[in-house]
């Protein structure tokens, strides 16, 4: 029952953050960031099994590994961008958080370009010549 | 994982103690020293956070980005 541990940790951290924020808001921010990092790091290891399963499936179905790698990279970018944006938003900097999310979206789009390219080529290949 | 939950309590403790020291030094009329104490405490906690951030990014890189 890891979820109980994590929820308990979050509650305790929230109380501590509220206590510290009265005196020093800077420390409260760092504490919030640290708590978020800790939970993320704790749970990111669990995703290993899902990824190995996906790899196995891709291997069985003969999907080129470059697609799976691209998708995993996109997921990684999404996690990092979301995490950073949330921490920055916690500190009250809505604008910077929006820019981080924007950068994440653009980078994901760039990552997806080869896949889109392949899709368009496939569709063009399916079309009758001269059509 | 070399960092455990007690680090969260450590950070909260550092924050409260720094706030206390700050108030005390302010009462004694040593504003300059009080500010330096705050800055140093902040840097110490910042180091802890940044180390954990590095761990997290390395982990994400090895899991998702294959590097």
UniProtKB/TrEMBL annotation, chain A:
<feature type="transmembrane region" description="Helical">
    <location>
        <begin position="28"/>
        <end position="45"/>
    </location>
</feature>
<feature type="transmembrane region" description="Helical">
    <location>
        <begin position="6"/>
        <end position="21"/>
    </location>
</feature>
<feature type="transmembrane region" description="Helical">
    <location>
        <begin position="65"/>
        <end position="85"/>
    </location>
</feature>
<dbReference type="InterPro" id="IPR025664">
    <property type="entry name" value="Spore_III_AC/AD"/>
</dbReference>
<feature type="transmembrane region" description="Helical">
    <location>
        <begin position="106"/>
        <end position="127"/>
    </location>
</feature>
<protein>
    <submittedName>
        <fullName>Stage III sporulation protein AD</fullName>
    </submittedName>
</protein>
<keyword id="KW-0812">Transmembrane</keyword>
<dbReference type="Pfam" id="PF06686">
    <property type="entry name" value="SpoIIIAC"/>
</dbReference>
<dbReference type="InterPro" id="IPR014211">
    <property type="entry name" value="Spore_III_AD"/>
</dbReference>
<keyword id="KW-1133">Transmembrane helix</keyword>
<keyword id="KW-0472">Membrane</keyword>
UniProtKB/TrEMBL annotation, chain B:
<dbReference type="Pfam" id="PF06686">
    <property type="entry name" value="SpoIIIAC"/>
</dbReference>
<feature type="transmembrane region" description="Helical">
    <location>
        <begin position="33"/>
        <end position="53"/>
    </location>
</feature>
<protein>
    <submittedName>
        <fullName>Stage III sporulation protein AC</fullName>
    </submittedName>
</protein>
<keyword id="KW-0812">Transmembrane</keyword>
<keyword id="KW-1133">Transmembrane helix</keyword>
<feature type="transmembrane region" description="Helical">
    <location>
        <begin position="7"/>
        <end position="27"/>
    </location>
</feature>
<dbReference type="InterPro" id="IPR025664">
    <property type="entry name" value="Spore_III_AC/AD"/>
</dbReference>
<keyword id="KW-0472">Membrane</keyword>
<dbReference type="InterPro" id="IPR009570">
    <property type="entry name" value="Spore_III_AC"/>
</dbReference>
């Amino acid at each position: 029952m890891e979820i109980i541990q994590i929820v308990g940790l979050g509650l305790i951290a929230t109380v501590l953050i509220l206590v510290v924020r009265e005196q020093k808001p800077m420390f409260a921010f760092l504490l919030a960031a640290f708590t978020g990092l800790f939970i993320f790091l704790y749970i990111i290891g669990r995703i290993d099994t899902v990824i190995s399963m996906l790899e196995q499936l891709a291997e069985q179905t003969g999907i080129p590994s470059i697609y799976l790698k691209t998708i995993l990279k996109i997921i990684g970018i999404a996690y990092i961008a979301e995490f950073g944006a949330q921490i920055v938003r916690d500190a009250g900097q809505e604008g910077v958080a929006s820019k981080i999310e924007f950068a994440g979206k653009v980078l994901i789009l760039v990552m997806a370009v080869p896949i889109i390219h392949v899709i368009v080529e496939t569709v063009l290949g399916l079309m009758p010549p001269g059509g | 994982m070399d960092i455990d939950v007690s680090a969260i309590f450590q950070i909260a403790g550092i924050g409260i103690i720094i706030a206390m020291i700050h108030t005390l030094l302010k009462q004694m009329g040593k504003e300059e020293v009080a500010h330096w104490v705050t800055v140093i405490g902040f840097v110490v906690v910042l180091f802890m956070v940044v180390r954990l951030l590095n761990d997290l990014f390395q982990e994400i890189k090895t899991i998702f980005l294959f590097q």
